[in-house]
Amino acid sequence: MKPNYLFNENNEFVIENYDKAKTFASFLPGIAGIDGIPMWAFYVNRGQVMGSFGVKDRDGTIMEFFPAHTMYQNIERKGFRTFIKHKGRIHEIFSSVSADKYARSLVIEKNRVRVVEENHTLGLRITVAYFTMPGESYAAMVRKVTVESLDGQDREIEILDGLPQLLPVGATNATYQEMSNLMKSWYEVYNAENRIAYYKVRASTADTVEVSEFEEGNFYLSFSTESNGLLPAIYDIDLVFGYNTALSRPDGWDCSIEELTLRKQIAQNKVSGGFTALRTVAGKKPFTLWSVIGHISGIHRANALKKDFCPEFILRKEREATELVEALVADTYTKTAVGMFDKYIDQCYLDNILRGGYPLIFGAGEKSHVYHVYSRKHGDLEREYNFFSLEPSLYSQGNGNFRDVCQNRRNDVLIKPQVGDFNVRHFMNLIQADGYNPLSVKGCTFTLKKEDWGELETLLETHRREVYRLVTGKFTPGRLIGFIVENGTTLNISKEAFLERVLEKSVQNFEAEFGEGYWSDHWTYNMDLVETYLAIYPDKRESFLFDDKGYCFYKSPAFVLPRADKYVAADGKVRQYGAVMAEKSGQGSQEACWLRTKQGRGEIYYTNLFVKLLSLALVKFVSLDPEGMGIEIEAGKPGWNDALNGLSGLFGSSLCETAELIRAIDFIIKSSEKYTKKVCLPEEIGGLLRTAEDLLTRNLSRELSDFEYWDLAATAREKYRDGIRNGISGQELVFSTGEVLEIFGKFRRKLQRGLEKALSYGAGIYPTYFTYNAAKYEIAEGRKNPVNGHSNVIISKFECRPLPLFLEGPARIMKTMEDKEAALELYNSIRSSEIFDSGLDMYKTSVSLEDSSPEIGRLRAFTPGWLEREAIFLHMEYKYLYAVLQAGLYEQFFNDARTMLVPFMKPEVYGRSTLENSSFIASSANPDEAVHGRGFVARMSGSTAEMLSMWFLMMAGRDIFTFEEGELSFELKPVLPDWMFDGQGKVSFRFLGNISVNYINPLKKNTYGEDCVRPAKYVLYYKDGSTRETAGKTITGRLAGDIRDGRIAGLDVSLQ
User: Fold this and answer.
1) 223 near 229, Cβ under 8 Å?
2) In this structure, which of 184, 260, 438, 776 has its CB flanked by the most CB atoms within 10 Å?
3) Which residues contact 989 (CB under 8 A, 6 or more apart)?
4) What are the residues facing 776 on neighbouring strands?
5) Residue at 865 is within a domain
6) Strand 558-560 and strand 580-582: pairing?
7) 605, 681 in Cβ contact below 8 A?
8) How far apart are CA 984 and CA 337, in angstroms?
9) Considering just the CA atoms, what is the radius of gyration of the chain in Å?
């Protein structure tokens, strides 16, 4: 029985004989709606597939969490089990050791997964489906088991179905796995008499003086199409398995169902499970058993649910779960001749939401607030190294790493224009004056101004004092609505309207934490946010840059040490270790997390976006390496490629950040050319700018060598950082945009020289990373690194050693290239290099690293073709493909897309749904040929952001809105090949999240290249029912504004 991969009539991914197929792990999205509590749920293609689920994080696990490879081994015993007794013989359904004749399949949907066994020995079809409960104030997993006859004949059967272990609240996954024998001393099951088994520990398990009790608990209940109420729960698994501790057979089931359910159960001092036993007749009419396993705040609330649980309720919830995610992905509706591509875009958008969040807009105009829901720090069975977190609340939001959240919000404003400049303000405010940023981006909170409470108080009939305390502190929409729901607060308006009124009067707080270090690349994603905002609002560029003085500088409780402290001798080698040191004082309140005047004792310093961009670019510019090529990796953490964790110690630098610095500087130059403005800089930043200009002038004139310039510039950077460590003076230096233009023009020339030098090292392909060897140095007597105690050294000469070629550098540089021929030359060089995997027609992260030092990082120790070492990292390959598309290399892009975009891959090779991304694909460099082309680590990566950027450029084009001579213009510039148009020459997509665009291409030609078609006529369908028709490729003035401002429902675009 070989596996077979296919898509059914609903374009759902199906694996026939899934339990014989390549193993993979995935997950349900964990979205319960703004009015629901989410549950995380991970599944694999073995057993009955649902592998682990719970609330919040691994400490809230209900079904034990294992890493993927262990889950594959354990799921058949420790996962869900279904036993059917017919004519005295017990059959285990979905068992790999079953002697029955059967056919099995796995069907994957966006928010539901199901498995089917057609058991020909029994003559039955058994279908098990899973989805998470939407729209309720508790979190739950719903399991639906349907049994029907294959031949229409009635069969009397007994069913024993459930889960052999169900962990109580208060038992963390780690303590259970390490000390389960001890932990069970606290365990107890309550409330079974009400047919809702309730699992919790009797008291806290920590060995501390403070002992607490738990009200919240996990629960198990079940009912069927025939039960007319809830069924009794079997929680004592000894009744099921008896002395068979291997759980291989239900040896305890040696009697009738009726007798089994009457046997005495022990509720204490055991690891309990949750089973349901019943008798039924399986015939033409399907029989269904539902089990609901969840988490709730108290037994009284669990018992209040009894009246809800019936077939009608749960079928409605099943529909809601499907409709919920379909409503979300409607924002990126796509219809081409390639149905798999269309569904793939849906899935990319959904998975992008899971990392970046889905923006809700509260209010309108200047009083509006943007609030992202459904995001979480990613982690799953294949990413067991990440301690994921999914906030168990209404309006659920989550924490994430700066890079992950920032890049996955890149396309927000392209899909939801109402987001405006929110993401720019959020992430630019988190940039520090030293050029770094906190690692952890937490969900936003709000604080109501106390003076505005009066008019809101009148909207409450009860709980006024409690709500006042809640909203005048830091609150979230979920906490406020949750309080109202939990406490039955009476309002004289709807709770949603009350929330809107409160938020209208509240201040939004950006919350973050330093985390564990400073990565060198995080700042680079901010320019994406700036550019996408201006792609929609080019007419607001001036006010966007100069008028909004609501920008400030985050301040982390850690600082980068100067070279005198971090250049050390360690084990006979000269290295850069112990680069970051924590401040002695704690981080304190949120107010203390922002840069203040009077050396930290004054007010928070506010400025505009132009100053923030200028200061960031300046600090990065004075962080160039000794050869003026890459930006130094000088703060202990690498860039995007986390597995190059040793580069900082090797005095590493990265050309990736240089490419992004060029983008930022080019933007500053163009803005300085366009506007005549005063630029008020904090005197510390202004002083560094003057010093950098003076040193650079001397370097460009050859008065200073590159090394001398580097040494003096680094010294100026260190002096600047020391001067702002506690705060700034508050005094400002005034520059004109003309002065900025002149200075940044010099910066640009220095960077161009560095690029040319780098290209000579790479022989036609830009190197991505450089390391430096200390060729001359001396021990600094009496000085030791304050972090690790190593003796300090003074280095007087470096030797540059580029690493082997990586894809990341060219991917970032290509998108800055305005010369199409130069971009094509670079493209051809990469495709001719070892970066290109000719066996798979894909791009690897790098060429062979076999000759590289193990000190560069853990990727050197990885197997070639695996993880970051010479594998196809989908995010980086997609980043490169997006750069190829941006460079105008359309033929090359679509040629690559046919083998490199996931929906065009062969699922039998990829090994999982080709609607879902994976983190990496094992390349031909891997010694195990069986894994070549196979995807690993499911879905949540930056690849979704890159794909959505490609999708938008393909469907709409670049510079769709322009603003010249005071007039807004709109022009669609799709980049679509002829094979994407259907038989009627039509492609449709959802534009700006709410406009249905139909391209009509009767000639079925490409929209690019020679002999192509372009927009020649637009028909605008207004939401009020009126229509307007306009000829030509461009729409100007009021009509362009109508499109952007959401007055249009549809656009028909004739291509000629």
Assistant:
1) yes
2) 438
3) 332, 333, 334, 335, 955, 997
4) 797
5) yes
6) antiparallel
7) no
8) 10
9) 31
Q: Please state, in angstroms and rounded to a whole number, the distance separating the CA atoms of residues 279 and 293.
A: 22
d(CA 104, CA 96): 11
Closest CA relative to residue 412, chosen from 360, 478, 334, 347: 360
CB 289 within 8 A of CB 276: yes
Q: Among positive and negative, which fits the CA dihedral 388, 391, 392, 394?
A: negative
Count of domains for the chain: 5
Q: Are residues 943 and 972 in the same domain?
A: no
Contact indicator for 48, 55 with CB cutoff of 8 Å: no
Judged by DSSP in three states, 326 sits in: helix
| CB atoms near residue 959 (< 10 Å) | 11
User: What distance in Å separates the CA atoms of residue 259 and residue 277, rounded to the nearest whole number?
Assistant: 10
Are 742 and 703 members of one domain?
yes
Tell whether 362 and 376 lie within a shared domain: yes
pTM assigned to the model: 0.97
Query: Chain-centre distance of CA 75, in angstroms?
Result: 27
The amino acid sitting at 695 is L
Question: Which domain-ending residue is among 305, 327, 349?
Answer: 327
Residues 724 and 849 in one domain: no
Strands (E), 534-572: 558-560, 567-570
Using CB atoms within 10 Å of the CB of residue 818, give its burial: 0 to 12 exposed, 13 to 18 middle, 19+ buried. exposed
**Interstrand relation of 13-16 and 995-1000 (parallel, antiparallel or unpaired):** unpaired
Measured CA angle at 752 (ends 749, 758), to 5 deg: 145
Q: CA-CA distance, 584 to 576, in Å (whole number)? A: 22
The pLDDT value recorded for residue 802 is 98
Find the Cα–Cα–Cα–Cα dihedral 835, 836, 838, 840, rounded to 10°: 100
- Which residue from 157, 192, 194 is spatially nearest to 277, judged by alpha carbons? 157
Domain limits at 1028?
956-1055
Q: Give me the pLDDT at residue 366, please.
A: 78
pLDDT tens figures, 263-300? 999 999 999 999 999 999 999 899 999 999 999 999 99
In the structure encoding, which two tokens stand for residue 631, read together?
């930006």
Q: Using one digit for the tens of pLDDT, what is the confidence trace for 290-343? A: 999 999 999 999 999 999 999 999 999 999 999 999 999 999 999 999 999 999
Query: Which burial class, exposed, middle or buried, applies to 262 when counting CB atoms under 10 A from its CB (0-12, 13-18, 19+)?
Result: exposed
Q: Do residues 893 and 779 share a domain?
A: no
Examine the domain organization and report whether 140 and 241 are in the same domain: yes
Residue type at 874? L
Going by C-alpha positions, the residue among 769, 748, 749 that lies closest to residue 758 is 769
Question: Alpha-carbon distance 910 to 913, whole Å?
Answer: 8
**What does the block give as tokens for 922?**
């094992």
Sequence-separated (6 or more) residues with CB below 8 Å from residue 1007: 973, 974, 975, 976, 999, 1001, 1013, 1014, 1055
How many whole angstroms separate alpha carbon 313 and alpha carbon 290?
11
Q: Which residue, 893, 920, 949, sits at the end of a domain?
A: 949
The C-alpha atoms of residue 1052 and residue 996 are separated, in whole angstroms, by 8
Per-residue buried b or exposed e for 588-605, using 16+ beta carbons within 10 Å of the residue's own CB: eeeeebbbbbeeeeeeeb
pLDDT tens by residue, 670-689: 999 999 999 999 999 999 99
Burial (CB count within 10 angstroms: exposed 0-12, middle 13-18, buried 19+), residue 932: middle
Angle, CA 431 vertex, CA 429 and CA 435 arms, to 5°: 155
**199/221 Cα distance (integer angstroms):** 12
Instruction: Clarify whether residues 706 and 785 are in a common domain.
Output: yes
For the chain, how long is the longest CA-to-CA vector? 97
Q: How far apart are CA 52 and CA 24, in angstroms?
A: 14
Instruction: Identify whether residues 502 and 572 lie together within a single domain.
Output: no
CB atoms within 10 A of CB 761: 17
